[in-house]
Amino acid sequence: MFRIGQGFDVHQLAEGRPLIIGGIEIPYEKGLLGHSDADVLLHTITDACLGAIGEGDIGRHFPDTDPAFKDADSAKLLEHIWKMIREKGYELVNADCTIIAQKPKMAPYIEPMKARIAELLECTPEQINVKATTTEQLGFTGRGEGIAAQAVVLLQKAK
Ligand SMILES: Nc1ccn([C@@H]2O[C@H](COP(=O)(O)O)[C@@H](O)[C@H]2O)c(=O)n1
Ligand SMILES: C[C@@]1(CO)OP(=O)(O)OP(=O)(O)OC[C@H]1O
Q1: CATH number for the domain harbouring residue 132
Q2: Which positions are annotated as binding 4-CDP-2-C-methyl-D-erythritol 2-phosphate (predicted)?
Q3: At 3, which helix (H) or strand (E)?
Q4: pLDDT of amino acid 66
Q5: How far is the CA of 130 from the centre of ligand 2 (A)?
């Protein structure tokens, strides 16, 4: 049996924060604001995974009112959800993700992100696609106020 899920997330850019996307720290003058480390891409993938198994969203599993998740490593949150998915007997077919950011240039970090996401989802980097786009200076991403990400994941029940 196949199950598909999609995710979308946005975090605001602010000074004095590290920029962590797809589990990789990217050198930049600003970082993403959030209750956790605000890894917008891992949050999006977590939501897509939860969507695929009909289990709501990241905020339902890890409320941003819970001090336990203050400054949480988003990789740990995804690991927890991925364990739930494996226990239900699913494995990843593939994931396709888009980072929407005017700056910085994501291209040098795409391969490390794929490798890290593959590690978290217990698959090969070839099963993960990560791409990036600007919004041609339009909207909140175009003005550099924030970064968005979206993802689709396809799961298959292992035989
Ligand atoms: N933050 C970003 C945005 C884009 N890229 C790469 O540049 C290409 C062109 O972007 P457009 O928004 O002008 O279509 C895009 O296809 C990405 O390869 C990037 O690395 N980082
Ligand atoms: C990850 C959580 C929990 O620390 O916090 P944030 O980093 O604010 O992220 P968001 O995508 O707004 O929602 C999920 C949250 O509950």
Answers
A1: 3.30.1330.50
A2: 9-11, 35-36, 57-59, 62-66, 101-107, 133-136, 140, 143
A3: strand 2-15
A4: 95
A5: 21
